[in-house]
Each structure stands twice: as C-alpha cells, then as structure tokens.
Design goal:
Blueprint lengths: L4 E6 L2 E5 L1 H13 L4 E4 L9 E2 L9 E5 L3 E11 L4 H20 L2 E13 L17
Parallel strand pairs: 6-7
Antiparallel strand pairs: 1-2, 3-4, 3-6, 5-6
Helix pairs in contact: 1-2
C-alpha cells in the first residue's frame, strides 16, 4: 500500500503516517519475540531472511485506515518452540507497539508461519578423543 492516509488534523496542519512506517514497527515488534528466527517474504514470494534487520518491513503487510490498522506478518519460527504461544506473543507485541507509537487502533494481527528454522549441527573436532579405534 503506497498511499498515505490522513491521520489527524491539528490547528497547524495534519499528521500523516505512511503504511511503511507501520510495517517497520510491526516488523520490529515481531523479531523482538523470542522464538522468532526471522521474517519471511511470503507475500511477495521473497527469500526468507533469518534474523535480518536490513529490511524491517519484509514479511509484513498492513492495511491502514484513518483510525484503524490490520497487520499480517509472515515468520520463520525456531524449532522447539510452541507455535501458538509464539504467535500469541507476536500478536500482543505488534498490537501494543503500533497502538502506543501511532495511536491507531489495531483491529487484527494475523501471524503466518512459513517455515521452521533448525540450528546447524555443530561439527565435531577431529582429535584422538573422538576416534572409536586407535
């Protein structure tokens, strides 16, 4: 969404918040949650970025009105975490962050799990203690 909605009129002008700002806030609030390995560019078919903070709006889609916002986030979750708990934490954190920073009412936060991240196996060092037979 590239249009900037008029948010608030004041005595000396208007305040406008670009949808990209809401996307960045939602992206930051999402990666703050422990158990999130990264954002996924699922909506645009992009490649997942694990723990990347280069593009904080990657994997985030927002719809912004005059007073309300709806958010969709696509994530990669770390293996071993309870998906419903992580998703609930993301919803609460995103809603709280957007409402606190912008004053917009967040009507929904949809969490889409696109992948599970497994930590790479650690390599065993080649030393004599690791050998079965000498």
């Amino acid at each position: 969404m590239s249009t900037i909605a008029e948010f608030e009129k004041t005595d000396i002008g208007t305040i406008q918040i670009a949808p990209e700002v809401i996307e960045v806030i939602a992206g930051l609030a999402t990666v703050e949650v422990e158990g999130v390995a990264g954002m996924s560019g699922g909506f645009a078919g992009g490649i997942a970025e694990l723990l990347g903070r280069k593009n904080l709006s990657k994997g985030v889609k927002v719809e912004v009105g005059q007073r309300e916002a709806a958010v969709d986030v696509s994530i990669i979750i770390q293996y071993g975490n309870k998906i419903p708990e992580i998703a609930s934490q993301i919803q609460q954190n995103v809603k709280r962050s957007i409402e606190m920073m912008t004053g917009l009412h967040v009507v929904e936060v949809n969490v889409h799990i696109h992948d599970v991240y497994f930590k790479p196996a650690e390599k065993l060092e080649d030393d004599d203690s690791q050998l079965r037979v000498k």
